[in-house]
Amino acid sequence: MTGPMPVEGHVPQPPSRRRLLLITAGGFVAAAAIAVLFVLPVEFHLDPTGFGRLSGLTRLAGPRTVKIDAPASGAGAVAPAGATARYYPSAYRTDTIDIPLETPDKGPEGSELEYKVRMKAGDSIVYSWTVSGRAPPDEFYYDFHGETPAGPGAPEAKVVEYRQATGSSSNGVLIAPMSGVHGWYLQNQSAARVVVHLKLSGFYDLVPPGEYGNTAGIRANPAKP
Amino acid sequence: MSRPFGFIWAVVLTLLVAAASGPALAHGIGGSDAAFVASSKGLQIVPFLYLGAKHMVTGYDHLLFILGVIFFLYRLTHVALYVTMFSIGHSITLLTGVLSGIHVNPYLIDAIIGLSVAYKAFDNLGGFQTLFGVQPNTKLVVLVFGLFHGFGLATKLQALQMSKDGLVANMISFNIGVEIGQLIALSIMLAVILWWRRSPSFARHAVLANAAILVAGFVLMDYQLAGAFTQKGV
After folding, report:
1. pTM value surpassing 0.80
2. A55 is in which domain, residue-wise?
3. Which residue of chain A has the CA closest to B162?
């Protein structure tokens, strides 16, 4: 660098008082405008000016997602009065599903997937699954949840969380708090290939392979050799 | 605009920062990283080192603040001193925040972090001397804002519900990772700024660049304040 070393800490030629005020106030206003015109519509579904709709920014935001609290009960919890006995006009069914999962070193494709079934609000299932293979229990992660994707007539997606944990088996009952797909995100973190053996019975519908909730294309009830 | 070149510089700078942030727009720890933290037990030194470094390298709010701090530091010893003050600040609150289980509102903390970016840009423009005739102690301010940045880091870890098993070692690994990531980002920013200072028009463009950082800081602040009031998004 030629010439004397400039003073540390600020610009070599600080702007005048007038210009500084202009920069600071202008910066504050510009930031507020950016936040209101762009950030609020995309990140928060708030569009006070209508610019988000006009410019198509709200489409970028995607459907609104609402998180619903599920009254999760522990083991042996007493069902609320009136919910002890339930009757269903639909047919009872039972299915067994084998879900193979690769090791994560081959990438997320194959080592993690979602398997869900369709349930209407109030429908119930009894489920039980175990992981076979040599995966240590703490290297198998699952996220039991339900969701209603947004679609025609449903501008908001709904998500309800039941359980996030690690383990090599899980048993329980689910009474769907809302209509939608309910099931598991499964993730194999171990160095071994595993198969999840899932048994379901109750009142629900399987999601055809490839459709939402079963995009991995898992087929139920494998034919016995 | 009478100086279109300066304006281009400011835009390029903003875009660089935005590009560095990549898809991590929300700037939490997400996706499979979050699943890893939630499911990991026991000692996981290297993964947490990596997560810490990644959080810093992709953390545009922290990066903008550091850029503001080093913008007009001409001696490497001073760069080292200021960055150390920042590290001491954020390490204190990261470690005590997670260990004590103090829960601060993550949106308000991130709003203050955004404000710290705007503050530093204003300071760089000579704002305090020009408008008020005083100069707040710059080292002390970096330390204090470092404390807030550390609370921000702590809220990101707390949101993931780390296992108690191996917590201290994993958290310290995360902290060291943060420092490594900061050094990586700092080296790149220093290289660019040293090269830029040799340009004869640096003084003029520096005003514009700091004005751009000021706007970016206020945008980050507004973004997080909106989150604080709606308690979602982000």
Report:
1. no
2. 17-61
3. A165
Q: Which among B74, B78, B124 is the nearest to A6, CB-wise?
A: B74
* Assigned domain for B234 exists: no
What domain count does chain B have? 1
- Cβ distance A43 to B233 less than 8 Å, yes or no, reads yes
The band of B186, judged by pLDDT with boundaries at 50, 70 and 90, is very high
CB contact under 8 A, A10 and B124: yes
Task: Count Cβ neighbours within 10 Å for each residue of B199-227 and write b for 16 or more, e otherwise.
Answer: eeebebbbbbbbbbbbbbbbbbbbbbbbb
DSSP 8-state assignment for residue A220: B
Is there a single domain that holds both residue A98 and residue A44? no
A10/B129 CB distance under 8 A:
yes
Partner-chain residue, chosen from B135, B203, B222, that has the shortest CB–CB distance to A32? B222
| Nearest CB to A20 within list B78, B130, B206 | B130
Q: Average the pLDDT over B197-211 and give the result.
A: 89
ipTM: 0.74
Q: Residue A181's beta-bridge partner residues? A: A118, A147
Q: How far is B207 from chain A (nearest CA, A)?
A: 7
pLDDT in tens, B73-96: 988 888 999 999 999 999 999 999
Ranking B38-47, B61-70, B102-111 by mean pLDDT, the lowest is B38-47
What residues in B contact A1, CB-CB < 8 Å? 197-198
Distance CA(B215)–CA(B217), nearest Å, equals: 5
Q: Are residues A123 and A181 in the same domain?
A: yes
d(CA B17, CA B186): 13
Band (B21; pLDDT cuts 50, 70, 90) = very low
Domain count, chain A: 2
In chain B, which residue's Cα lies nearest the Cα of A140? B39
